[in-house]
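Handout for the seminar on molecular recognition.
Each group receives one record of this type.
Step one: identify the two inputs.
Step two: read the structure output and locate the region that could contact PXL.
Step three: write two sentences on what you found, then compare them with the reference statements printed after the record.
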Amino acid sequence: MIKVLSIAGSDPSSGAGIQVDLKTFQALGAFGMAVPAALTVQNSNGVSGVEAVSATMFLKQLQSLLSDIKPHAAKTGMLLTKQNVETTAALLKKFRIKNLVIDPVLKSTSGRVLLQPAAVKALRKKLFPLATIVTPNLPETELLSGMTIKSEKDMDYAAGKILDLGPSYVLVKGGHRTGPAADTLYGGKTVIAFSTLRREGEFHGTGCVLSSAITVFIARGLPVEKAVEKAKQFVDRMLITAKPVGKAKTKYFQF
Ligand code: PXL
C-alpha cells in the first residue's frame, strides 16, 4: 500500500486544500493522510478568511503522525505562517521523509494571502532544499525568483534561480499566460515543456490536484518526468467533467 501525506490548508468547499488532496490520493489508489496547517473560510465565491492552526497543535499533529506512519511521499500546500514552514521543514527532516512535493501556494485566486510575507524566506531557505519538486505558477515563480518574467528566457532563468535553492526539479505552471497551457519542467539535465489544451472556464483547485497527483506517482517510484506527465494527464481528464457546485461559475473537479 502506498501512503501519502498532505500538509496544507482546509477548504470547506473541498475544491482545493487538504480535502481535494485526499480525494486525489483516493482516486489514484493511494492511502491518503492530511495534517491541516491552516483553516480558510471559503465557498465557490472565494476565500473570505484565513487562520493558522496553533503552532503547538500543528507540531503535535506532525510529530504524532510521523512517529507512527512513514509516508512514501508528502506534499505541502497552504502553510500560511513562517512558524508552520519551519515546523514542516524540521519534522520532514527529523523523520527523513523523502519524495517531497512543494506547491508554494502564495495567494488564492481571489487575492487572499495564503502564505504570509514573513514566511516566504523560510519557504525558500528551509523547505526548498528538502524538495524533490516545487510547482510554482508564473506569479509565484516571479516572487520566488525575485524576477519579472516577460519571455521564455526569463522563465528559464527564474527556474534556474529556484533550482539553486535546492529542489531537484521545478515545474513552472504556465496556465496564467495566454496561449497553450505549457508547463515547463526543469531539472538537472531536463527541460521538458508539457503542452495541454486550454479548457474553457475558471477552475478551482487545479494546482492542488496536480501536486497531489505528482505526489502519488512519485510515491509509486516513477521518475519525476513520468510522474509529472501522468499527473498532467490526470488533471486534464478531470478538467473535462468539472462543473460549478455553488453559486459562482468556478468549476470544481468531480471525484
Ligand atoms: O489553490 C490554492 C489553495 C490552496 N489551498 C487552500 C486554498 C487555496 C485557494 O483558495 O484555499 C486551502
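Reference statements: Residues 3-252 form a domain with the UDP-N-acetylmuramoyl-L-alanine:D-glutamate ligase fold (CATH 3.40.1190.20). Residues 8-11, 16-17, 40, 42, 47, 77-78, 105, 108, 114, 205, 207-208 surround PXL (CB under 6 Å).
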